[in-house]
Amino acid sequence: MDELEQRAQAVTNALDALRPVTEGASRAHLDALARHVAHAIGRMRFRPVEREPPPRHPSNFARVPREPPPSFPSFVEARALGGPHAAAVRALLDALAAFQERLVFEADCQEYVDALNSSREFLFAAGHLDLAEPHALALAHQLARAAAAP
Predict the structure, then answer these.
(1) How many whole angstroms separate alpha carbon 22 and alpha carbon 14?
(2) How high is the pLDDT of residue 70?
(3) What φ, ψ does residue 62 adopt, rounded to 5°?
């Protein structure tokens, strides 16, 4: 299994770990997050599943591919939230960031060798993870609030 597949699997595993502890609004965010991840994985595998035009992650590649900067700076605060599910939430946020970073790096590598269609698909996949970001944050906050409620 290549590195992109491993990172996609890590996100899927993290989502599966949180499924039993979500309900109501947090379940809606988990489901939306899972939908965006499924679209990203479909794009990564060159089998798009969405019908509408896909989102595209913004990119500004230099000549030689290099590791992208850390993804999702908004996750810093959410990683610090407490509660009984904090470790599972951190695992999800870390897996999403690692998957996003690898997709952007792969897009950069593909652009470097003039495989522009492949690069575009990886950026579309990363764009779906951009759309998943607010759902991941909302899920993290709702699980932390539910744990703090009496």
Answers:
(1) 13
(2) 85
(3) -85, -165
Residue located via tokens 């502890």 = 21
d(CA 99, CA 37): 10
Give the separation between CA 129 and CA 94, rounded to whole angstroms: 13
As given in the structure block, the two tokens for residue 20 are 């039993």
Supply 91's token pair.
């695992």
Q: Do residues 27 and 135 touch, judged by C-beta distance below 8 A? A: no
Instruction: Determine the residue type at 79.
Output: R
Distance CA 96, CA 75 (A): 10
Provide, for the chain, the percentages of residues in helix, strand and coil under a 3-state DSSP scheme, each rounded to the nearest 5.
70, 0, 30
Q: What is the pLDDT of residue 2?
A: 93
Helix H or strand E encompassing 32: helix 24-44
Query: Over the chain (150 residues), what is each successive 10-residue block's mean pLDDT?
Result: 91 96 90 95 88 78 78 91 90 96 92 86 94 95 78
Task: Please give the DSSP secondary-structure letter assigned to residue 69.
Answer: P
